[in-house]
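retry 2 of 3: previous attempt timed out while embedding heme C. Reduced batch size to 1 and resubmitted. Inputs unchanged:
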Amino acid sequence: MHKSHPHILFAARPGLPTAIAGIRRSAGLLTAAALLSGLAACKQVDHEAAFRDAAARPVMLQLHRERDALSAEPLRALTPTPAAEPDAMVSLGQRLYHDVRLSGDDTVSCASCHDIAKGGDDGLKTSTGIKGATGPINAPTVLNSAFNFRQFWDGRAATLADQAKGPVTNPLEMGAAWPAVIAKLEQDADYRQAFEAAFGDATVNEDRIATAIARFEETLITPAPFDRFLLGETDAINTDAKKGYALFKSYGCVACHQGVNVGGNLYQKFGALQAAFEIQTDVDKGRQNITKNAADAGVFKVPSLRNVELTAPYFHLGTVDKLGDAVRVMGSSQLGRTIPDDEIALIVEFLRSLTGEAPQLAAATQN
Ligand code: HEC
Ligand code: HEC
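retry 2 succeeded.
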């Protein structure tokens, strides 16, 4: 079936537990909710503190909990936010995100690998960084990443700001050193002004760069036709997408792809019921790299399925090109089921209803 993708296996592993009922909804949903409520709060208060302390706002958390409890659906609607004028912090973050000066040789920006207008990723199996370096893993989308309970496939970054520091010094990505990046930005009078507008003074440092980029990323939210459907607009998606959503629930995809990001709120083994791939390199070990626990080999953050139509190729190594094939792999590896072709097509139609509008701020060009 996947001759061109020898990395993907279908060997049965009968000894593995057959019930996924035990998969529990993670507190990550609430963390995401806290981040969202942080968005509103960030407008009036100190941005850095607000972002750090997203979890310390019990009132907003409680509101989100109540809203969650009221809904009978396993997926949550993104509520469209009114298109506000970007504030000084968001504008600065947007510029930094598109600025190649964050790389060692002024050739690579965040947008090189996360093209906002094209699904928020690079369309490659694994990413290409500075001087054509080939990275070891597939680039996930930045769109809606503010809703993920952790960042990276193995969840090693707790927040978007933590995450944003990684690629700049990664030799296979942007290959830069912070002092050099900071010196380049400090020489630019426009940047000095922009940092002052965002932070109150013109100091440029690593934390501020990461914070501003994270604030920009928090605006990369893409409400989709499916959200309008969840919010009561019954004709927002077609009949096939509705059938596909019913199958997505009845097959049990929602046990793992759930909540506001249709994923992004728990860790699961790729190959929960049937071996899905051979562990060949360190990146294949997933969570095991972080926890050092052998049971975590092949465990990854369940990816968000928002905009998944646009983010081929699929899985952490980009081993599968077609969305329908990815759904088929999920059926066997995660659910122990062979999903018939007509149902695969319906599930794909549902997944396509998760494609949102590219965020308005996407129009920015490379600096
Ligand atoms: C050379 C390509 C490349 C560049 C440049 C790059 N990234 Fe990434 N990004 C990746 C890859 C690959 C991953 C996955 C790495 C992993 O999980 O180990 C990733 C992961 C992420 C994630 C986590 C998403 C998720 O769902 O876990 C975010 C957010 C992100 N990058 C934002 C950025 C920002 C901000 C910048 C600029 C400071 C940046 N990236 C620069 C390739 C790149
Ligand atoms: C037991 C948990 C679990 C279940 C059930 C599950 N998935 Fe997944 N899904 C994952 C994990 C984990 C990954 C990431 C695997 C990897 O790349 O290492 C994933 C990845 C995917 C991807 C690829 C996303 C990307 O950006 O690469 C798609 C598409 C997908 N799942 C759809 C589905 C569908 C449709 C179903 C139901 C038929 C389903 N999943 C059931 C855990 C699950």
